Amino acid sequence: MQIQQNISLRPYNTFRIDAYAKYFAKFTSLSNLEQLFDAPFLQENERPFIIGGGSNILLTLDYNGLVAKNEMHGIEIVKQDQQHVYVRAAAGENWHQFVLYCIENNFAGVENLSLIPGNVGASPMQNIGAYGVEIKDVFYELEAFDINERKVKTFTAKECEFGYRESVFKRKYKGQYIITSVTFKLNKQPVFNTSYGAIQQELDKMQVKELSIAAISQAVINIRQSKLPDPNKIGNAGSFFKNPTIPQQQFEDLKKEFPQIVGYPAKDSVKVAAGWLIEQCGWKGYRKGDAGCHAQQALVLVNYGDAKGSEILALSSEIMQSVEAKFGIMLEREVNVL
Fold it and tell me: Domains of the chain (ranges plus CATH)?
């Protein structure tokens, strides 16, 4: 395992922020990972900063320590029964490539999560979701390296405490574990989910005669490509903010003043479309220098070239303040800020 010095992290984060790591390494195995914590230059109790696909981070500073990129790979079937197949994927596998692997093998359940950027290891960390499906719906278990005890622990779905873009790894155990693999419980017989968003419209547009997980995947890909900027062309981390959940009464009061407000029932509350709130505050298409709010999707902040992470962060703060002032709702960042 090679440890490099003063390395730009621009190729390793989808925002394409040009922050620097004092030390940088890639690990491909558990033994590599264990070696990282024995690096002679690490200060007492200092821990490496782990990155995967770099699709959910905003780097606002250079990192005066060790940044380690997870490149653990491998996909295998660990068991199966009449209805399900259990597939384990290493945390460094690209998420979309894993989805394509499942579709190719007719393993159903993740097709609605096509084209989400990032790696497999990040998927349970924030319970990624799209078009009516979340990781918790297909999750079986994961393995994670306990940094303090230097051993691997297995977590069940219950132990992960999944919530909306949440898990124990984002707050309760933040910085204590490094996810090394995730096992998914997938269906041999698909249960199609086409009711969310514009999936059915896109399928009709595609003139799909026989519904399949491949067709749903392609519909989701088409929709995402029409709405969201390609990180390979414009730096971004996808949805920058969570959709806020507010009490039903607060939503009803807002609806009187803003009849077009977009919300979805969520138990005893309402999940409000953050993109709509941001657009109503006039931010959609806004640009200051190379930092901006995307012209097609207000939920996405972008780096048009050489924006600093601090400039993106400052823009997000302005957006949050204006939404709170207009609607009385405080947005929460979905992206992890370093």
Answer: 3-70 (3.30.43.10), 75-227 (3.30.465.10), 235-337 (3.90.78.10)
